[in-house]
Amino acid sequence: MRFLGIDLGTGSLKLATIDGDGRECATASVAYAVETPQPGWAEMRVEVWWRALIEAAARLPAQERDAVCAIGFSGQMHGVVLTAEDGSAVRSALLWPDTRAAGLLDAWPEPQPNPVAPGMAGPLLRWIVRNEPQSAAATRWALQPKDWLRAALGGVVATDPSDACATALAGTSGAWNHAQIDALGLPQEWFAPLAPSYAAGGTLSVEAARALGLREGIVLAVGAGDTPCAALGSGLAHDGDALLTTGTGGQIVVLATAVPQAARGLHAYRAATDHGYRMAAMQNVGVALEAVRGWLSYSWADAYQDAFGVDPTTTLTFLPYLTGERSPWMNPAARGGWLGLALNDSRATMMRAAFEGVAFSLRAGLDAIRANGAPVASLRLAGGGSVDARWRQLLANALEAELYALDCPNAAARGAAMLGGLASGHWHAADLAALTPAATLVASPQRDAALAARHARFIDLYRRTESWFSVSA
């Protein structure tokens, strides 16, 4: 018995199979590149996704494919796929990094239940109606990426609350905001019916089964967005369970019994289960460290060795906001750099300040979550940018939280596969806690008064520069 998870990501499609006890058995992935026909645009031809799925499925062992009895879906959030009545794509999918609708956000005046970005379905659809009337006229459904894929495999046309609530066209519960949709001049019939992420959403068609080397009639779960799927796959099952992901950017996700109250700088969305979750999303983690490493001409091994081989200076601070910032500041004009450089500073002290600055930026997001009612004392740790033990210890000290490394390299695909198991009836909600992947304590916070002082200096310097950059931008 196997459950297959399909994670339709921005840069790759990943597959993972798990057995009846939730253990990962096989994986496969195929990468692709986002298409940018014009500056600021981010698109993808759905044929690229389809070919990637067929190729990835072919890489799974035949015995794994033969054992698959249900499929679940995880997908990049936001964006939109316009489809015609016959299910064909009207145009290339528009993806979340797309900024063409940046001038159309006036329809979402603050305060909003969640921050609105130009790459969300709402602003993108507003742009389509204004600029591509021929595409709008041919559209029957405006779908999220994973919902298009499920329908292409023979499933029903539907979406789930976790994806719907991140479109800027629905409330935090995931229910469509019909008054807002009307006010934007969008057809109500474009928007798919809602169903739980773990509900059955049709079965695999004969044609799709033949293309993927699977059995026809396999149950298809409705699925969820990639962040809630990663939370599920990482074992977040109870109120207050938290996950820290560090990659190009950073995310802190904290599960909640109900959808939390809105707070500026934080996202409050529906989870893949009947929970909600708070999320702080920080843009400048791996991207900032990689930039600094390059500027200072370090290899990664030497960057870690030098940075953690010197004592940090009391006056040097690095603000990592090279691409603006989301949580908690919501300041796209924010900028970064070193402040307090002295003649006795070196590459090593500058690299160390960069690691600390990134850790402090994550702390700012976590503090916003704590202020919103979630007293986080420990976090599960995921992401390729958080492996070095010295970096983990700095993160634990800066965040004032225990860090647990997960034995779960494909969390979103695993979460999608778990949704397949729920949709087929193999598991029920009460079983989820028992499916938590193994986690090992890798860092406990140590009291460090000097680090606390440098953190206070970081916050003070950001606030001093915040207004300057906002005015200058």
TrEMBL record:
Domain Carbohydrate kinase FGGY N-terminal: 4-233
Signal peptide interval: none
Pfam family name, one: FGGY_N
Keywords per UniProt: Kinase, Transferase
GO function term, MF aspect, one: kinase activity
Chain ranges of the Carbohydrate kinase FGGY C-terminal domain: 309-423
Domain of life: Bacteria
A single GO BP: carbohydrate metabolic process
Family: Belongs to the FGGY kinase family.
The protein, known as: Carbohydrate kinase
Source organism: Trinickia violacea
Upper classification of the organism: Bacteria, Pseudomonadati, Pseudomonadota, Betaproteobacteria, Burkholderiales
